Amino acid sequence: xxxxxxxxxxxxxxxxxxxxxxxxxxxxxxxxxxxxxxxxxxxxxxxxxxxxxxxxxxxxxxxxxxxxxxxxxxxxxxxxxxxxxxxxxxxxxxxxxxxxxxxxxxxxxxxxxxxxxxxxxxxxxxxxxxxxxxxxxxxxxxxxxxxxxxxxxxxxxxxxxxxxxxxxxxxxxxxxxxxxxxxxxxxxxxxxxxxxxxxxxxxxxxxxxxxxxxxxxxxxxxxxxxxxxxxxxxxxxxxxxxxxxxxxxxxxxxxxxxxxxxxxxxxxxxxxxxxxxxxxxxxxxxxxxxxxxxxxxxxxxxxxxxxxxxxxxxxxxxxxxxxxxxxxxxxxxxxxxxxxxxxxxxxxxxxxxxxxxxxxxxxxxxxxxxxxxxxxxxxxxxxxxxxxxxxxxxxxxxxxxxxxx
Length: 405
Fold this sequence. Notes:
Blueprint: H1 18-51, H2 56-81, H3 87-106, H4 110-138, H5 142-168, H6 172-185, H7 187-191, H8 217-236, H9 239-246, H10 251-270, H11 272-277, H12 280-300, H13 305-332, H14 339-365, H15 370-381, H16 383-388
Helix pairs in contact: 1-3, 1-4, 1-5, 1-6, 2-4, 2-14, 3-4, 3-6, 4-5, 4-14, 5-6, 5-10, 5-13, 8-12, 8-13, 8-14, 9-10, 10-13, 12-13, 12-15, 13-14, 14-15
């Protein structure tokens, strides 16, 4: 199939070819399989590390390595999107994730955990940059396409941890093996995606260069939202399972509790289009406040299953809004040819907090109880809401430059 360069043309109508509607189903399938595998390894890897005697502080450092590789990869994505079709980012992401799972099946030595986390970070960077840029061009509106992709993400993220918890009760190796197989299965729909043209190279000057694109008001606000979502995910993949295990909960219970948070994130993504219509400040507050509050409450009350379930549900709703609205606002705040740069820049902030959040909690655990450290991390997630909500970006998703305007 020849390359196509298709961008959304309007709001409320769908002028895109019928063939591309089939492509959307492939996008959803690839996302569902990839995120199921990612959710499984997100629970299984920290539990496997605990099982072999790795300390909580070291686990935080290991998980932070995924943030290092993701952030390094994200810095190159803007340029790569102008050279390669976005579908190949999704294909390579599935392969990297499956390999990261296979490493932990083969060995539980520290080198295997290091390599696995580095590959997971690379997989996240490739997948989210590729799938999000594909979605903003394959759906009529950015927020609509990203909402659908994030619902698929949420579905996989709730199935993965629950399945991992059930399998881990019998065998952590089996749980990691199934995660790897699921990652391999994601290769098929990813490879069948429509080959959209790479983004054209945008004209760059000192004011609008791609490395400074995050300074634009709309993109800057989007990056603050995405950073909050990244902190939530980083903690859900590291210290949330650890603190629940330390509180005496069994692996199946931990899997279910993490799944509660991911179900709520799915709901947050689903309602993001409604939140979007309420305006910029509402979107920021509706995302950052519950995400930070829920994480903080989990740190304070890890032993009470019902309270943890409520706290993780609150956090998940906010995170779902953040991870949908952030990239959508970034994409809609720039010219069409700059969307690849905007989404890549936005993702770099997510990668940074995926690194900083676990690493910061790991440092605090050296001097504070893990519950207090997690509570402080949740409180710090609230701070950007105070700063961003006081600003009114000159370009919002509702006023963004659209194709043909």
